[in-house]
Amino acid sequence: MDIGFSLEETRFREACRDWLHAHVPAEKRPLNAADAIDFDKAWQRRLFDAGWAGINWPTDYGGRGLSIVQQVVWLEEYAKAHAPWIGANFVGINHGGPTLILNASEAQKAYHLPRILKGEAIWCQGFSEPGAGSDLAGIKTRGRIEGDELIVNGSKIWTSFAHVADWQELVLRTEDGSRRHAGLSWVICDMHAPGITVRPIRKMSGQTEFAEVFYDDVRIPLANVVGGLGNGWKVAMSTLSFERGTGFIADQVKQSQEIEELIAAARANGMMKDDRVADQLAQMRAEVAAVRAMTYRNISHVVRTGQPGAEASVIRLFTSELGQRLERMAVLLKGADILDFRYGDDDAVADYLRGFAATIAGGSAQIQRDIIGERLLGLPKSR
Amino acid sequence: MDLTPNDEQTVFQTATADWCRDNMPLEAARARPAGLWQQLEAMGWTGMTAPGMDLDHATEALVFAELGRFLAPVALLSSAVAARWTGATVKVALALPADGGARLFDGEGATHALGLFGGALGHFEIGEAPPSAPSLDQSATLTRIAGPLTIVAIDHPHAALHLQILAAAYAIGAADAARDMAAAYAQVREQFERPIGWFQAIKHLCADMAVRCAVARSQLYYAACALDAGDAGAAFHVAAAKRLADQAALDNGRANIQIHGGIGMTDEAYPHFCLKRAHLLQHVAPAERTALLAA
Ligand SMILES: Cc1cc2nc3c(=O)[nH]c(=O)nc-3n(C[C@H](O)[C@H](O)[C@H](O)COP(=O)(O)OP(=O)(O)OC[C@H]3O[C@@H](n4cnc5c(N)ncnc54)[C@H](O)[C@@H]3O)c2cc1C
Asked: Any idea where the Acyl-CoA dehydrogenase/oxidase C-terminal domain is (chain A) (predicted)?
C-alpha cells in the first residue's frame, strides 16, 4: 500500500493544474438549468478541445484512453481549482456515456459518445415514474413494437435536465403483460421527438432542474435499444452503478474544501469557541479525510481487479450523509442570516435545501442500507 | 497510489487471521492461557517494525487489525511500540496515566511499561506492583501503581503516532468482530417466523456497522501510508483514523448487544467483550480535537 503518485501521474497533475489555473472561467455558472445550458455546453467544449474530456474513455470515441487514476487526479485538481459544476452534462458524462461504452452497439457508441464529450448533446435519465421510485421495477411506461419502431406512451418524473436535454436514457416496458424486472428495455430517446411534453418542476431551493416528461405515441427506432430488447433491467443496473460509483468522485473532493471553509468561518465568527461546534468540525474533518481514503481504496480495487469493490454503496451512503452534515453546519454558522434567503440566491442555504436530494435521488439512503445489509453482510432480502 | 494490500501484505493478513482463529479465539478472551505471550513473540508480532524485521507501518497496521479482531492482548501495542523506539525485546505493559501514577494493563511478566503521558510517549520501570486483577475488559488484567513515575521520554514524534495507529487498528478489529457477530446472529435468530435480519430496523443497524468499519479502515490504511511516507499530514491522518476507529468500535459494540437481544447482555455471551475492549482502547492515545483541527 502507498499513497504516492507515480512520476507520470504527478506530471499529469501539474498539467491539469496549469491548464485549470489559466482557463477556469471567472464568471459563475448560472443557477437554473435553462439559463446555464449555454454555459455548460461551452465549458464542456473547451474541456474537450483541450483534451480534458473523457480522460478514461476509449480513444476511438473521442476519449483520452488514460487510466482511472488519472481521471481521479483530474477531478481532484478540477475541484481544487474551483472549476464549474458539471451541470447539465452530469448524466451524459457520468452515467449515460459509461453505460453506452459498456452496453451499446458500435453504431450507437460512434454516434453518441463524441457528442457527449463535446458538450453537443445533453442527456437526461428517464427511470423514475410516479409509481416507480425506489421500486424501479414498477415501471409502467410502455413501448409497443410496430415495424421497426417502438410507440411509447406513459410518463416519467423527477427527470433532471429534461427541459434542456437532447437525449434520454429511457427505461420502459416493451413486453406485453411482463412484470417487474422482466420485459423492460433501456432505449435512447430523442427528447425533440413529436409527442414528448416536458413540464418543469421547481425545487424548494428555487431552481427548476428537474421535470415531468409525458410520452404520447412517441416513435423511437428499435435501433435505439441498448443491450437488447428485454434486457433493460440489467443495463439500468449498470447505469446505476456508474451513477452511484465514480460519478460522485468530484463531490467527494469538494467536501474537503468545504470543511476547510467551515473551519475558517467558525474561527472567524467565534463559533469555534462552542465545544459542540468545534467537536463536530473535528469529526467531519476526520470523516472527509476518510472519504478520500475510501475513494482511493475503491479506485485501487478497480485498478487491481477491473471492478469497483463491493463497498461502492458504502461510499455513496456515507458521502451523501456527510455532505448533508456539512451543509447543516454551514447553515448553523450563518445563524439568523439564513432568513434572508430568497429564490434565486446561490448560497449555503440553497446548497442545504438542494442537498436533501443526496439521500433521495439515485437510490435513497434506506435503499442503500438494504443493499449494504444484503450484499455485503448476507442478510435476507426484505423486498 | 494503491490503497489495497499488496500480495505480501495479504499473506501477512491471512496468516494472522488463520493463526488467531486456531490459537486465540475471541470466545476464549476472558482467560488466555499462560503461554500465549511466548507464542505471540514467536510469531513476530512484538517487533514487526523494529530493527530485524523492519516492516512498514502499513503492514503492521493490517496485521494488528486482524489481531484486534480476536481481542489479542493489549500489551502487544506497547511492546511493539517499545521494540521499535527503545529497542526492547521483552514484554512491555501498556500504561495509562492516572492521578500522577498509572494504570498498567497486561503487566504479568513485564518489567517496563509504556504509554502517553502529557501528550508525549514515555516508558518507565515498573518495580513493585500490586497483583493484577481483571479490568473492565476481561481480556486485559489491570493493576494500579502510585506516582511519582520516573518516565523516560521517547522524543521521536512518530513514536506517539505509532501507538495511536496500532490502537486504531485494534479498535477496527473489535468493530469488525462486532459487525460479523451481529450479522451472523441476524441471519440465524428467527422471530415472527423469519430471521431478524429480514427486518430493516435490524438490517440497517448492521449496515451502519459495516459503514463505520469501512470508513475507519480506509482511513487507517491512508494514515499508515502517510506515516511510512513521512507525510506532513501524518499526525492529522493518524488522529483521524483513531477517532473513527474508536467510534466504530464503541458504536458497533453497542449495536451488537442490541441486535442480540436478551442474550446480548449476558456475561456468558460474547458481545460485551467487543464493547469493553472498545472502552479500553478509547483511552489509549485518544485523538485530540486539536490534532484533528490543526492546520
Ligand atoms: C433532485 C432529484 C433529482 C432526480 N433526478 C432524477 C433523474 O434525473 N432521473 C430519474 O429517473 N429519477 C430522478 N430522481 C428520482 C429519484 O431516483 C427518486 O426520487 C428515488 O428513487 C426515490 O423515489 P421516490 O421519490 O418515488 O420516493 P419513494 O420510493 O416513494 O420513497 C419515499 C420514502 O420511502 C422510503 N422507502 C421506499 N421504499 C422503501 C423500502 N423498501 N424500505 C425502506 N424505505 C423505503 C424511501 O427511502 C423514502 O424515504 C431524482 C430525485 C431527486 C430528489
From this structure: 230-377
Atom of ligand 1 nearest to the CA of A124: 8
Residue type, B220: L
Closest partner CB to B221 (pick from A297, A299, A304): A297
Whether A133 lines ligand 1, by a CB cut-off of 6 Å, is yes
Question: If you take atom 44 of ligand 1, which residue's CA is the nearest one?
Answer: A366
ipTM over 0.85: yes
Contacts of A325 in chain B (CB under 8 A): none
Residue B260 CA, ligand 1 centroid: distance in Å: 32
- The architecture in CATH of the region A7-117 reads Orthogonal Bundle (1.10)
> Domain residues of chain A, as ranges?
7-117, 123-231, 245-376
Catalytic residue of the set A243, A287, A321, A327: A243
Asked if A8 is an active-site residue, the reply is: no
The Cα–Cα gap between B217 and B174 comes to 12
Which grid cell is A119?
Answer: 458538450
Instruction: Confirm whether pTM is higher than 0.90.
Output: yes
Fold of A123-231: Butyryl-CoA Dehydrogenase, subunit A; domain 2 (2.40.110)
B275 touches chain A (CB under 8 A): no
- CATH topology for A245-376 is Butyryl-CoA Dehydrogenase, subunit A; domain 3 (1.20.140)
- CA proximity to B157, closest of B105, B225, B232, B247: B232
Strand ranges inside B88-229, DSSP E: 92-98, 101-105, 112-117, 120-125, 133-134, 141-145, 152-153, 190-191, 194-195
- Dump pLDDT digits (tens) for B113-156: 999 998 899 999 998 888 999 999 999 999 999 989 999 999 99
Q: Taking CB atoms and an 8 Å limit, are B215 and A369 in contact across chains?
A: no
Atom 32, ligand 1: residue with shortest CA distance: A134
* Tens digits of residue pLDDT in B152-191: 999 999 999 999 999 999 999 999 999 999 999 999 999 9
| Domains located in chain B, CATH noted | 7-150 (1.10.540), 159-294 (1.20.140.10)
d(CA A123, CA A191): 9
> B294 CB near a chain A CB, below 8 Å?
no
